[in-house]
Task: inverse folding
């Protein structure tokens, strides 16, 4: 009898805790249902030749002709298919690696600062670019790279060089795009890793220092290993977007220069330039393809990591 009472009490206690957590997560659940799951019905557009016959989205969708996978064909039949895949995957692979290495390095350096007030100033300065629109950033960059009045060309001419037509030279732009992406995103990543470093048990460092470890040995043997789980989670999540490109970075920052299309042609810019809003079905097919590939990569990478280290996996 007592055993049953204890079991019932335990179940009731578990229900009470679960009910509170469920209640707290209810607004987020409703938000995701309304704005993430419910709109997934629109995936059907990717398999239809969507046309407007009259008012009402649902009626137009039903009346539009079913074309199957025809909308996906343009992505693979185009002569630029290899260029699109190369640029998208190549740039994103670099962004993922640098988006881990640089923020971790900065977070470690900030955590080692003795002057915490100075550390907050540095942190704010690094975080500020995250809030800037690519449109704003592109015009700041244009002020530096303008062929006639740009700051860089002004310095080049001052020291006896020849002005560079930056927006017509392909060689410089892979490095410019990589730098701009890292510059804009490093502050956000640094804050996440710095929060994780702050949560590490201080007694681990105290014990290491008592045993004669230096500060850098503390970083090597305590800080970096403690960040492993967070790094793996962020890496898996970033793989989900490896087939997506930052449209603002590749379209707005180079000012949509036709000379740079070999560098800036990625999935998102190609779809916009090739079809724009002319064929909604093809646009939806491209987005659906990107989502499916991201889904596959997330689950496959999580499966591999789960085989190697079950506790480090995302799910």
Result:
């Amino acid at each position: 009898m007592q055993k049953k009472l204890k079991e019932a009490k335990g179940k009731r206690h578990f229900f009470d805790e679960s009910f509170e957590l469920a209640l707290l997560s209810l607004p987020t659940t409703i938000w995701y249902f309304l704005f993430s799951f419910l709109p997934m019905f629109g995936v059907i557009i990717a398999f239809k030749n969507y046309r407007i016959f009259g008012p009402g989205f649902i009626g137009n969708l039903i009346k539009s002709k079913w074309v199957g996978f025809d909308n996906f064909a343009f992505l693979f039949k185009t002569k630029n298919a290899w260029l699109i895949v190369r640029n998208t995957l190549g740039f994103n692979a670099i962004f993922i690696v640098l988006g881990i290495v640089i923020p971790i390095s900065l977070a470690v350096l900030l955590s080692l600062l003795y002057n915490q007030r100075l550390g907050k100033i540095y942190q704010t300065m690094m975080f500020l670019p995250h809030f800037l629109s690519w449109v704003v950033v592109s015009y700041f960059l244009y002020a530096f790279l303008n062929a006639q009045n740009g700051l860089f060309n002004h310095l080049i001419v001052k020291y006896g060089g020849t002005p560079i037509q930056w927006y017509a030279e392909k060689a410089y732009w892979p490095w410019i795009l990589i730098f701009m992406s890292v510059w804009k995103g490093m502050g956000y990543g640094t804050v996440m890793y710095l929060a994780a470093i702050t949560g590490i048990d201080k007694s681990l460092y105290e014990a290491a220092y008592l045993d004669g470890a230096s500060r850098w040995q503390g970083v090597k043997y305590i800080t970096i290993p403690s960040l492993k789980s967070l790094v793996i989670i962020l890496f898996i999540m970033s793989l989900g977007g490896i087939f997506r490109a930052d449209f603002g970075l590749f379209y707005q920052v180079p000012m949509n220069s036709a000379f740079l299309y070999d560098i800036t042609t990625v999935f998102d810019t190609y779809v916009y330039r090739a079809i724009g809003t002319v064929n909604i079905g093809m646009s939806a097919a491209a987005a659906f393809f990107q989502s499916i590939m991201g889904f596959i990569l997330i689950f496959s990478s999580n499966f591999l990591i789960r085989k190697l280290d079950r506790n480090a996996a995302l799910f």
Remarks:
- The mean pLDDT is 86.
- The longest strand covers residues 48-49.
- Residues 78-308 form a domain with the MetI-like fold fold (CATH 1.10.3720.10).
- Residues 29 and 183 are 33 Å apart (CA to CA).
